[in-house]
Amino acid sequence: MLWLSVYAGVLGACIGSFLNVVIYRLPRRLPLIAPGSRCPHCEQPLPWRYKVPLLSYLWLRGRCAYCHHPIALRYLIVETATAVLFAVSILLMEISTELVQHLLLLSILLAAAEIDRLHRIIPNKLLLTGALGGLLILVWAVPSVVGLHLLIALAAVLLGVLLRQFTLWIWRTPGIGMGDVKLIGMVALFLGDQILGVVYLAFLFGGLYGLVGLLLRHLTRRQRIPFGPFIALATVLYPWCQRVFYTWVEAFLIA
Ligand SMILES: [Zn+2]
Protein backbone atom coordinates (compact mmCIF):
# COMPACT_ATOMS: atom_id res chain seq x y z
CA MET A 1 0.00 0.00 0.00
CA LEU A 2 2.90 2.32 0.82
CA TRP A 3 4.50 1.65 -2.58
CA LEU A 4 1.18 2.35 -4.28
CA SER A 5 1.04 5.65 -2.45
CA VAL A 6 4.60 6.50 -3.59
CA TYR A 7 3.67 5.70 -7.22
CA ALA A 8 0.56 7.87 -6.89
CA GLY A 9 2.74 10.67 -5.47
CA VAL A 10 5.13 10.46 -8.46
CA LEU A 11 2.15 10.50 -10.86
CA GLY A 12 0.74 13.46 -8.90
CA ALA A 13 4.05 15.37 -9.22
CA CYS A 14 4.00 14.81 -13.02
CA ILE A 15 0.35 15.96 -13.24
CA GLY A 16 1.29 18.95 -11.04
CA SER A 17 4.06 19.81 -13.50
CA PHE A 18 1.48 19.80 -16.33
CA LEU A 19 -0.90 21.88 -14.16
CA ASN A 20 1.89 24.48 -13.86
CA VAL A 21 1.96 24.68 -17.68
CA VAL A 22 -1.85 25.06 -17.70
CA ILE A 23 -1.70 27.76 -14.98
CA TYR A 24 0.90 29.76 -16.92
CA ARG A 25 -0.41 29.33 -20.47
CA LEU A 26 -4.22 29.12 -20.27
CA PRO A 27 -4.84 32.70 -19.00
CA ARG A 28 -2.32 33.99 -21.60
CA ARG A 29 -4.15 32.09 -24.35
CA LEU A 30 -0.97 30.19 -25.29
CA PRO A 31 -1.12 26.62 -26.72
CA LEU A 32 -0.75 23.97 -24.00
CA ILE A 33 1.28 21.26 -25.76
CA ALA A 34 3.74 22.83 -28.26
CA PRO A 35 6.17 24.56 -28.07
CA GLY A 36 7.88 22.85 -25.11
CA SER A 37 8.48 24.61 -21.78
CA ARG A 38 10.71 27.71 -21.74
CA CYS A 39 12.07 29.93 -19.02
CA PRO A 40 9.44 32.70 -18.71
CA HIS A 41 12.27 35.23 -18.26
CA CYS A 42 14.96 34.47 -20.90
CA GLU A 43 12.68 32.28 -23.11
CA GLN A 44 15.39 29.60 -23.41
CA PRO A 45 13.77 26.21 -24.26
CA LEU A 46 14.24 23.78 -21.35
CA PRO A 47 15.69 20.27 -21.93
CA TRP A 48 14.05 17.35 -20.06
CA ARG A 49 16.66 17.39 -17.27
CA TYR A 50 15.42 20.83 -16.18
CA LYS A 51 11.78 19.71 -16.28
CA VAL A 52 11.82 16.77 -13.84
CA PRO A 53 8.97 17.50 -11.37
CA LEU A 54 10.12 18.60 -7.87
CA LEU A 55 13.76 17.47 -8.40
CA SER A 56 14.75 20.03 -11.08
CA TYR A 57 13.48 22.91 -8.96
CA LEU A 58 15.42 21.71 -5.92
CA TRP A 59 18.55 20.86 -7.94
CA LEU A 60 18.58 24.31 -9.60
CA ARG A 61 17.74 25.89 -6.22
CA GLY A 62 14.75 27.69 -7.71
CA ARG A 63 16.70 29.51 -10.44
CA CYS A 64 16.76 29.26 -14.25
CA ALA A 65 19.85 27.26 -15.37
CA TYR A 66 20.57 29.82 -18.13
CA CYS A 67 19.73 33.33 -16.88
CA HIS A 68 19.66 32.47 -13.13
CA HIS A 69 16.41 34.42 -12.75
CA PRO A 70 14.42 33.10 -9.75
CA ILE A 71 11.61 30.66 -10.62
CA ALA A 72 8.44 31.38 -8.61
CA LEU A 73 8.03 29.14 -5.55
CA ARG A 74 4.45 28.41 -6.63
CA TYR A 75 5.79 25.94 -9.27
CA LEU A 76 7.23 23.80 -6.47
CA ILE A 77 4.13 24.30 -4.27
CA VAL A 78 1.71 23.17 -7.04
CA GLU A 79 3.81 20.06 -7.81
CA THR A 80 4.16 19.17 -4.11
CA ALA A 81 0.45 19.78 -3.39
CA THR A 82 -0.63 17.56 -6.32
CA ALA A 83 1.84 14.83 -5.29
CA VAL A 84 0.63 14.88 -1.65
CA LEU A 85 -3.08 14.97 -2.60
CA PHE A 86 -2.63 12.01 -4.99
CA ALA A 87 -0.58 10.00 -2.47
CA VAL A 88 -3.09 10.60 0.36
CA SER A 89 -6.15 9.97 -1.87
CA ILE A 90 -4.94 6.49 -2.83
CA LEU A 91 -4.41 5.66 0.86
CA LEU A 92 -7.97 6.76 1.75
CA MET A 93 -9.85 5.39 -1.27
CA GLU A 94 -9.60 2.06 -3.07
CA ILE A 95 -8.66 1.96 -6.75
CA SER A 96 -11.94 2.65 -8.53
CA THR A 97 -13.61 5.00 -11.00
CA GLU A 98 -14.54 7.07 -7.93
CA LEU A 99 -10.82 7.59 -7.25
CA VAL A 100 -10.19 8.63 -10.89
CA GLN A 101 -13.11 11.07 -10.65
CA HIS A 102 -11.75 12.45 -7.37
CA LEU A 103 -8.22 12.92 -8.79
CA LEU A 104 -9.58 14.65 -11.91
CA LEU A 105 -11.63 17.02 -9.75
CA LEU A 106 -8.60 17.77 -7.52
CA SER A 107 -6.41 18.56 -10.54
CA ILE A 108 -8.96 20.88 -12.16
CA LEU A 109 -9.59 22.63 -8.80
CA LEU A 110 -5.86 23.16 -8.16
CA ALA A 111 -5.41 24.82 -11.57
CA ALA A 112 -8.63 26.86 -11.20
CA ALA A 113 -7.70 28.07 -7.70
CA GLU A 114 -4.19 29.11 -8.71
CA ILE A 115 -5.31 30.87 -11.93
CA ASP A 116 -8.05 32.67 -9.96
CA ARG A 117 -5.54 33.72 -7.28
CA LEU A 118 -3.06 35.05 -9.86
CA HIS A 119 -5.36 36.53 -12.53
CA ARG A 120 -8.83 36.82 -10.92
CA ILE A 121 -10.35 34.68 -13.68
CA ILE A 122 -11.27 31.01 -14.10
CA PRO A 123 -10.92 30.10 -17.81
CA ASN A 124 -13.99 28.54 -19.46
CA LYS A 125 -11.76 25.99 -21.23
CA LEU A 126 -10.65 24.61 -17.85
CA LEU A 127 -14.21 24.48 -16.49
CA LEU A 128 -15.50 22.81 -19.68
CA THR A 129 -12.71 20.21 -19.58
CA GLY A 130 -13.59 19.43 -15.96
CA ALA A 131 -17.33 19.29 -16.62
CA LEU A 132 -16.91 17.05 -19.69
CA GLY A 133 -14.45 14.75 -17.90
CA GLY A 134 -16.71 14.52 -14.85
CA LEU A 135 -19.76 13.82 -17.01
CA LEU A 136 -18.00 11.10 -19.02
CA ILE A 137 -16.88 9.31 -15.83
CA LEU A 138 -20.43 9.53 -14.41
CA VAL A 139 -22.00 8.19 -17.63
CA TRP A 140 -19.56 5.28 -17.58
CA ALA A 141 -19.54 4.45 -13.86
CA VAL A 142 -22.92 5.48 -12.39
CA PRO A 143 -25.27 6.35 -15.30
CA SER A 144 -28.28 6.28 -12.93
CA VAL A 145 -27.25 9.57 -11.24
CA VAL A 146 -26.30 11.55 -14.39
CA GLY A 147 -29.71 13.24 -14.65
CA LEU A 148 -29.79 14.13 -10.95
CA HIS A 149 -26.25 15.55 -10.94
CA LEU A 150 -26.98 17.61 -14.08
CA LEU A 151 -30.10 19.00 -12.42
CA ILE A 152 -28.22 19.84 -9.20
CA ALA A 153 -25.41 21.52 -11.22
CA LEU A 154 -27.99 23.63 -13.07
CA ALA A 155 -29.70 24.55 -9.78
CA ALA A 156 -26.32 25.44 -8.23
CA VAL A 157 -25.49 27.77 -11.15
CA LEU A 158 -28.94 29.40 -10.96
CA LEU A 159 -28.58 29.89 -7.20
CA GLY A 160 -25.10 31.34 -7.74
CA VAL A 161 -26.42 33.82 -10.33
CA LEU A 162 -29.22 34.86 -7.92
CA LEU A 163 -26.73 35.30 -5.08
CA ARG A 164 -24.51 37.37 -7.37
CA GLN A 165 -27.44 39.59 -8.37
CA PHE A 166 -28.44 39.94 -4.70
CA THR A 167 -24.95 41.09 -3.61
CA LEU A 168 -24.83 43.39 -6.66
CA TRP A 169 -28.11 44.94 -5.50
CA ILE A 170 -26.96 45.32 -1.84
CA TRP A 171 -23.29 46.32 -2.24
CA ARG A 172 -23.39 47.57 -5.86
CA THR A 173 -20.55 45.19 -6.56
CA PRO A 174 -20.84 41.42 -7.17
CA GLY A 175 -19.94 39.29 -4.12
CA ILE A 176 -18.82 36.40 -6.33
CA GLY A 177 -17.60 36.33 -9.93
CA MET A 178 -19.29 34.49 -12.82
CA GLY A 179 -16.20 32.21 -12.94
CA ASP A 180 -16.90 31.16 -9.33
CA VAL A 181 -20.55 30.48 -10.16
CA LYS A 182 -19.53 28.26 -13.09
CA LEU A 183 -16.90 26.55 -10.90
CA ILE A 184 -19.60 25.72 -8.31
CA GLY A 185 -21.71 24.24 -11.14
CA MET A 186 -18.78 22.10 -12.30
CA VAL A 187 -18.08 20.82 -8.77
CA ALA A 188 -21.82 20.06 -8.35
CA LEU A 189 -21.66 17.86 -11.45
CA PHE A 190 -19.05 15.72 -9.64
CA LEU A 191 -20.46 15.81 -6.09
CA GLY A 192 -24.24 16.06 -6.53
CA ASP A 193 -26.08 17.22 -3.41
CA GLN A 194 -22.83 17.52 -1.39
CA ILE A 195 -22.33 20.85 -3.21
CA LEU A 196 -24.50 22.63 -0.60
CA GLY A 197 -22.11 21.68 2.20
CA VAL A 198 -19.09 22.56 0.04
CA VAL A 199 -20.42 26.05 -0.80
CA TYR A 200 -21.31 26.65 2.85
CA LEU A 201 -17.79 25.67 3.90
CA ALA A 202 -16.25 27.82 1.13
CA PHE A 203 -18.17 30.89 2.38
CA LEU A 204 -17.07 30.07 5.93
CA PHE A 205 -13.39 29.84 4.91
CA GLY A 206 -13.63 32.96 2.73
CA GLY A 207 -15.37 34.91 5.51
CA LEU A 208 -12.79 33.83 8.09
CA TYR A 209 -9.94 34.77 5.74
CA GLY A 210 -11.53 38.19 5.10
CA LEU A 211 -12.08 38.81 8.82
CA VAL A 212 -8.56 37.82 9.85
CA GLY A 213 -7.13 39.77 6.88
CA LEU A 214 -9.03 42.91 7.96
CA LEU A 215 -8.00 42.52 11.61
CA LEU A 216 -4.34 42.08 10.66
CA ARG A 217 -4.66 44.97 8.15
CA HIS A 218 -3.49 42.61 5.44
CA LEU A 219 -6.67 43.36 3.47
CA THR A 220 -8.67 46.54 2.92
CA ARG A 221 -12.46 46.79 3.02
CA ARG A 222 -12.79 47.34 -0.73
CA GLN A 223 -10.33 44.63 -1.70
CA ARG A 224 -11.76 41.80 -3.82
CA ILE A 225 -10.81 38.30 -2.65
CA PRO A 226 -10.74 35.53 -5.29
CA PHE A 227 -13.31 32.90 -4.24
CA GLY A 228 -12.00 29.99 -6.40
CA PRO A 229 -9.30 28.95 -3.90
CA PHE A 230 -11.92 28.68 -1.11
CA ILE A 231 -14.19 26.50 -3.26
CA ALA A 232 -11.17 24.26 -3.98
CA LEU A 233 -10.16 24.12 -0.30
CA ALA A 234 -13.74 23.41 0.79
CA THR A 235 -14.07 20.56 -1.74
CA VAL A 236 -10.84 18.95 -0.49
CA LEU A 237 -11.68 19.33 3.22
CA TYR A 238 -15.44 18.69 3.00
CA PRO A 239 -15.40 14.89 3.69
CA TRP A 240 -13.13 15.44 6.69
CA CYS A 241 -15.17 18.41 8.04
CA GLN A 242 -18.36 16.38 7.57
CA ARG A 243 -16.92 13.56 9.70
CA VAL A 244 -15.81 15.98 12.45
CA PHE A 245 -19.24 17.67 12.38
CA TYR A 246 -21.13 14.36 12.74
CA THR A 247 -18.82 13.28 15.57
CA TRP A 248 -19.65 16.53 17.38
CA VAL A 249 -23.39 16.16 16.80
CA GLU A 250 -23.26 12.56 18.02
CA ALA A 251 -21.27 13.54 21.11
CA PHE A 252 -23.76 16.36 21.77
CA LEU A 253 -26.79 14.06 21.38
CA ILE A 254 -25.30 11.38 23.66
CA ALA A 255 -24.31 13.98 26.24
ZN1 LIG B 1 16.00 31.94 -17.86
Task: Write the SSE topology.
Elements: H1 2-25, H2 55-59, H3 73-92, H4 97-119, H5 124-141, H6 146-171, H7 178-191, H8 195-215, H9 228-254
Description:
By secondary structure, this protein is an all-alpha fold. The chain folds into 2 domains: 1-92, no CATH class; 97-255, no CATH class. 70% of the residues lie in helices and 0% in strands. It is globular, with a radius of gyration of 20 Å. Zinc ion is lined by residues 39, 41-42, 44, 64, 66-67, 69.
Task: List the keywords.
single chain; 255 residues; mainly alpha; binds zinc ion; 0% strand
Radius of gyration: 20 Å
pLDDT < 50 runs, ≥5 residues: none
Beta strand count: 0
Structural class: mainly alpha
Helical content band: 55-70%
The fraction of residues assigned to DSSP E strands is: under 5%
C-alpha end-to-end distance: 38 Å
Task: Describe the structure concisely for a colleague.
It is built from nine helices and no strands. By secondary structure, it is mostly helical.
